[in-house]
Amino acid sequence: MRVVTSAQIAELDRRATEEHGIPVQQLMETAGRRVAQAARELLGSARGHVVVLTGKGNNGGDGLVAARYLAGAGLSVTALLTASQSEYVGEARRALGEATASGVEVQAAAPGRLRGSLETAALIIDALFGTGFRGSARGIAAEMIQTANAVKRPILAVDVPSGLNADSGHADGPAIRATATVTMGLPKVGLLVHPGAELAGTIYVAEIGYPPALTDDASVRTHLVTPEMVRARIPARPPDSHKGTYGRTLVIAGSVGFTGAAVLAALGALRAGAGLVTLGVPADVYPIVASHVIEAMPTPLPAADGALAAEARNRIDELVGISEAVAVGPGLSTASGVRAVVQGLLRTGRPLVIDADGLNVLAGRADVLRSAAGPVVITPHPGELSRLVGKQTAEITQDRLGSARAAAERFRCVVVLKSASTIVATPDGEAFILRTGNPGMATGGMGDVLTGAIASLIGQGVPPADAAWAGAYLHGLAGDLLAGERGMVGMLASEVADHLPSALQRIRMGTAPEVIRTLSA
After folding, report:
1. pLDDT the model gives residue 45
2. Is 403 exposed, middle or buried (0-12, 13-18, 19+ CB in 10 A)?
3. From CA 433, how far away is CA 424, in angstroms rounded?
4. Residue ranges making up the domain that contains 36
5. Domain check: are 190 and 339 in the same one?
6. What's the pTM value of the predicted model, to 2 decimals?
7. Which contacts (CB < 8 Å, 24+ apart) does range 195-198 have?
8. What is the pLDDT of residue 46?
């Protein structure tokens, strides 16, 4: 599913009207009907009072159409206006007149008296500001936002929570904290990246009549990863297959004090379906790792002071020659030999997944990634990416999507920027947003499992970019399945790895939970 910016959805609106002859009034009418549909779902069997916070623009018009439909269904509805009725113009004015005629109670919002109005609501509909909003809400609108949040009633936002920047996911001032958001046509970037994803609540994408030629426009190059997309990329398992069918994955990981990272990366590769996994570790830690690895094949490599020595490159080259994909980095340390190994791997031409210390040793010299002889996937968290690109971590987190895209273009590799909403960006400008995963996964070893899983999928024949977003989706889904069974606190990376087969099965069977909901007729 494509994901749009505010400028892109404005262009889609324009083209819908000018090229496809769909009147603005028709789009607003359908949008309001979808908001009313979501409102009835949130209310359930309750017949309580609904209050619509109504701005002067088309977002307010959508809210007023929804108010009319809800009143027509027999609900008590009040529309609180941010301005006098005479200030409403165009389609918003038409919607206001029709709402009034249908029995919606219309009031001008009064400063200092909002709490009493909102405390009576079973549901608040936020239709103050739409996707074009920038800056900080002020005056009566700001008071409406703050009061709506304070009364702790369910809030349904129209298109985006008011006060939220639809492109960045950040808010410069007060912003609605919605229970759910009905967004029109296609999801907006700011709803899917944090902190906007937290403010949006459950996301409904409303089909309002845009032609498929517009909603699948190839010029929109950001995507939300869905279960259907992952299912299309998971390798089939024919009855006459064997372990060689599913590839040999090589994992280079571990050092003294970080043996668990090696074990977890190998486990991630195995649980994601690799036929054979070879685990190369410094000889100094080989006995420890070998005692914890059963299904993978541990191999000792030349070591110095508990970490890989530069001389390990010769043996690693031999192992690379019989492998379809390579993962390198978890727990390797930043010893000088590690840098030599990583740079050597970049010259082999084999698909390579680089994580953790494999990235840390490239800080200050990361442009070497551009000269890799084969496809490369890097899996940094914001701190690791900041070291690679020479920026502060805060700059990365302020614009995760833009940062991932810029790094992918600069380094000519696939970037998996790990965060609450993981972003996968490709060198040609495509980007993918993930909605699986949960806060329980904020613990050591999770990234090691992900690294192994992505390399495993590549080894099974999945193109590297697709393996990156599919692997990240499955990793997050495995964490969600585990959290559903045991709760989020105390989750272990090894347990998430053990849930990868269940995540794969959910995808194959079509029973994975949808990351967003669609509203249609």
Report:
1. 84
2. buried
3. 7
4. 6-216
5. no
6. 0.96
7. 195/169, 195/170, 195/171, 196/160, 196/161, 196/164, 196/165, 196/168, 196/169, 196/170, 196/171, 197/169, 197/420, 197/421, 197/435
8. 81
